[in-house]
Fold:
Amino acid sequence: MREWTGLSKRDFYDPAKIALVPMGFCYPGKGKSGDLPPRAECAPLWHDRILKLLPADRLTLLVGSYAQAYYLPRAARLSLTETVQAFRTFGPALFPLPHPSWRSVGWAKRNPWFESDVLPALREAVRSSMPPRGRIGRSAEHGDGGVD
Structure:
Protein backbone atom coordinates (compact mmCIF):
# COMPACT_ATOMS: atom_id res chain seq x y z
CA MET A 1 0.00 0.00 0.00
CA ARG A 2 2.86 2.38 0.78
CA GLU A 3 4.33 1.76 -2.66
CA TRP A 4 0.98 2.34 -4.34
CA THR A 5 0.45 5.63 -2.50
CA GLY A 6 4.03 6.84 -2.88
CA LEU A 7 4.18 7.67 0.83
CA SER A 8 7.34 7.38 2.88
CA LYS A 9 7.33 4.96 5.80
CA ARG A 10 7.42 7.98 8.13
CA ASP A 11 4.31 9.57 6.59
CA PHE A 12 2.39 6.32 6.13
CA TYR A 13 2.70 5.40 9.81
CA ASP A 14 2.16 8.93 11.14
CA PRO A 15 -1.24 8.93 12.92
CA ALA A 16 -1.51 12.69 12.43
CA LYS A 17 -1.56 12.05 8.67
CA ILE A 18 -2.95 8.59 8.01
CA ALA A 19 -5.76 6.61 9.60
CA LEU A 20 -6.28 2.93 8.71
CA VAL A 21 -9.82 1.87 9.52
CA PRO A 22 -10.63 -1.80 8.89
CA MET A 23 -14.09 -2.97 7.89
CA GLY A 24 -14.03 -5.26 10.91
CA PHE A 25 -12.17 -4.86 14.18
CA CYS A 26 -11.73 -8.53 14.95
CA TYR A 27 -10.39 -11.50 13.03
CA PRO A 28 -13.45 -13.19 11.48
CA GLY A 29 -11.78 -16.59 11.17
CA LYS A 30 -10.51 -18.71 8.32
CA GLY A 31 -12.67 -19.86 5.43
CA LYS A 32 -12.07 -22.37 2.64
CA SER A 33 -10.05 -20.00 0.44
CA GLY A 34 -8.80 -17.39 2.92
CA ASP A 35 -10.18 -15.28 5.71
CA LEU A 36 -13.92 -15.05 6.23
CA PRO A 37 -15.60 -11.71 5.42
CA PRO A 38 -15.62 -8.97 8.07
CA ARG A 39 -18.43 -9.40 10.59
CA ALA A 40 -21.51 -7.49 9.44
CA GLU A 41 -22.04 -5.64 12.73
CA CYS A 42 -18.56 -4.09 12.91
CA ALA A 43 -18.68 -1.27 10.35
CA PRO A 44 -22.15 0.03 11.35
CA LEU A 45 -21.16 -0.06 15.01
CA TRP A 46 -17.75 1.64 14.79
CA HIS A 47 -17.20 3.49 11.53
CA ASP A 48 -19.38 6.55 12.17
CA ARG A 49 -17.81 7.01 15.60
CA ILE A 50 -14.29 6.84 14.21
CA LEU A 51 -14.88 8.83 11.04
CA LYS A 52 -16.35 11.73 13.08
CA LEU A 53 -12.90 12.11 14.66
CA LEU A 54 -11.26 12.60 11.26
CA PRO A 55 -11.17 15.72 9.10
CA ALA A 56 -14.18 16.07 6.81
CA ASP A 57 -12.02 16.93 3.81
CA ARG A 58 -10.09 13.67 3.78
CA LEU A 59 -9.24 11.25 1.02
CA THR A 60 -10.68 7.80 1.72
CA LEU A 61 -9.05 4.81 0.08
CA LEU A 62 -11.64 2.03 -0.19
CA VAL A 63 -9.39 -1.01 -0.14
CA GLY A 64 -11.03 -4.23 -1.27
CA SER A 65 -14.50 -5.30 -2.26
CA TYR A 66 -15.99 -5.19 1.27
CA ALA A 67 -15.11 -1.52 1.77
CA GLN A 68 -16.32 -0.70 -1.73
CA ALA A 69 -19.63 -2.50 -1.28
CA TYR A 70 -20.22 -0.70 2.03
CA TYR A 71 -19.27 2.83 0.95
CA LEU A 72 -20.14 2.68 -2.75
CA PRO A 73 -23.56 0.98 -2.78
CA ARG A 74 -24.17 1.97 -6.40
CA ALA A 75 -20.99 0.07 -7.32
CA ALA A 76 -22.26 -3.13 -5.71
CA ARG A 77 -23.38 -4.34 -9.11
CA LEU A 78 -19.85 -3.91 -10.46
CA SER A 79 -16.94 -6.28 -10.02
CA LEU A 80 -13.92 -5.12 -8.06
CA THR A 81 -12.08 -4.70 -11.37
CA GLU A 82 -14.87 -2.56 -12.84
CA THR A 83 -15.08 -0.46 -9.67
CA VAL A 84 -11.34 0.20 -9.54
CA GLN A 85 -11.28 0.97 -13.26
CA ALA A 86 -14.09 3.52 -12.75
CA PHE A 87 -12.24 5.24 -9.84
CA ARG A 88 -12.70 8.71 -11.36
CA THR A 89 -16.51 8.44 -11.14
CA PHE A 90 -16.48 8.30 -7.35
CA GLY A 91 -15.24 11.83 -6.89
CA PRO A 92 -12.11 13.23 -5.36
CA ALA A 93 -12.79 12.02 -1.80
CA LEU A 94 -13.26 8.28 -2.46
CA PHE A 95 -10.71 6.09 -4.21
CA PRO A 96 -11.46 2.36 -4.71
CA LEU A 97 -8.48 -0.02 -4.78
CA PRO A 98 -7.93 -3.77 -4.74
CA HIS A 99 -6.64 -5.29 -1.53
CA PRO A 100 -2.81 -5.26 -1.67
CA SER A 101 -2.40 -8.96 -0.91
CA TRP A 102 -0.36 -11.55 -2.78
CA ARG A 103 -3.44 -12.19 -4.95
CA SER A 104 -3.24 -8.62 -6.26
CA VAL A 105 0.03 -9.36 -8.04
CA GLY A 106 -1.73 -11.59 -10.55
CA TRP A 107 -4.69 -9.21 -10.74
CA ALA A 108 -2.39 -6.27 -11.54
CA LYS A 109 -0.64 -8.29 -14.27
CA ARG A 110 -4.02 -9.06 -15.86
CA ASN A 111 -5.01 -5.38 -15.58
CA PRO A 112 -2.02 -3.30 -16.72
CA TRP A 113 -4.18 -0.15 -16.71
CA PHE A 114 -3.97 -0.26 -12.90
CA GLU A 115 -0.28 0.63 -12.91
CA SER A 116 -0.45 3.03 -15.86
CA ASP A 117 -3.71 4.86 -15.04
CA VAL A 118 -4.77 4.27 -11.44
CA LEU A 119 -1.49 4.43 -9.52
CA PRO A 120 -0.37 7.82 -10.90
CA ALA A 121 -3.84 9.26 -10.12
CA LEU A 122 -3.74 7.70 -6.65
CA ARG A 123 -0.31 9.17 -5.90
CA GLU A 124 -1.48 12.59 -7.02
CA ALA A 125 -4.65 12.34 -4.90
CA VAL A 126 -2.60 11.31 -1.87
CA ARG A 127 -0.06 14.09 -2.44
CA SER A 128 -2.86 16.66 -2.77
CA SER A 129 -4.60 15.48 0.39
CA MET A 130 -1.57 15.49 2.68
CA PRO A 131 -1.33 18.36 5.17
CA PRO A 132 1.49 20.83 4.61
CA ARG A 133 4.68 20.06 6.52
CA GLY A 134 4.46 21.29 10.06
CA ARG A 135 0.66 21.18 10.26
CA ILE A 136 -0.62 18.43 12.49
CA GLY A 137 -4.13 17.22 11.79
CA ARG A 138 -6.50 15.04 13.77
CA SER A 139 -6.30 11.36 13.05
CA ALA A 140 -7.28 7.80 13.70
CA GLU A 141 -6.63 5.28 10.97
CA HIS A 142 -7.53 5.27 7.22
CA GLY A 143 -8.38 8.90 7.01
CA ASP A 144 -6.40 11.68 8.63
CA GLY A 145 -5.07 15.05 7.91
CA GLY A 146 -5.29 13.56 4.50
CA VAL A 147 -5.65 9.91 3.65
CA ASP A 148 -8.18 7.40 4.96
